Amino acid sequence: MTLPALLALGITGGIVPCPAAVVVLLSALSLNRLGFGLLLIVAFSLGLAAVLVAIGLVMVYARRLLGRLDADGPVLRRWLPLASSAVIVLVGVVLTVRGLVAAGMLRIEL
User: Fold this and answer.
1) In whole angstroms, how large is the CA radius of gyration of the chain?
2) What is the pLDDT of residue 88?
3) φ and ψ at 31, to 5 degrees?
4) What span, in angstroms and rounded, lies between the C-alpha atoms of 66 and 73?
5) 3-state secondary structure (DSSP) of residue 81
6) Distances from the Cα of 57 to the Cα of 43, 60, 68, angstroms
7) C-alpha distances in angstroms, 45 versus 41, 52, 65, 87?
8) % the chain with pLDDT above 90
9) Is residue 53 within 8 Å of residue 7, measured between CB atoms?
C-alpha cells in the first residue's frame, strides 16, 4: 500500500456515517447546538481517519519486518503462536475477573 492509498482509506473511513454520529447530531439538534454537534462529528471523523491510517502504516511496516525474518525459524513457527495465545488467555482472565468483581461475585482486596 502506498501513502496516498492509506490516506484515502482514512478519509473514506472517516466520512462513513455511524450510529454514534447520528446520536450526537440528533442530541445537538435537540439542544439547539447544531454547530457544536457538527464540530464533534468532524472531530470524530478526523480521529477515525487518523486511527485507520495509523493501523495501515503499522500493517505495512509489520509486513516488511516479518518479511526479513526467517519463516522457518523457531520464533515464527513455535513461539509467536504460543505468545499470541497466552496474550488472548490473559486478556480473557482479566476481563472475567473484572466482570465478576463488577457483578459483586468476587472481592479483591489489595
Assistant:
1) 21
2) 97
3) -95, 5
4) 12
5) helix
6) 21, 5, 17
7) 6, 11, 30, 31
8) 22
9) yes
The grid cell for 81 is: 503462536
Check pLDDT > 90 for residue 101. yes
Distances (CA, A) of 97 to 3, 86, 87, 106: 42, 16, 15, 8
pTM for the predicted model, two decimal places = 0.49
How do residues 20-64 score in pLDDT, each as one tens digit?
777 887 888 899 998 898 898 888 878 877 887 888 888 888 877
Burial of 25 (0-12, 13-18, 19+ CB in 10 A): middle
Query: Collapsing DSSP states into helix, strand and coil, what is residue 34?
Result: helix
Residue-averaged pLDDT of the chain: 82
**Residue 53 CB-half CA count within 13 A:** 17
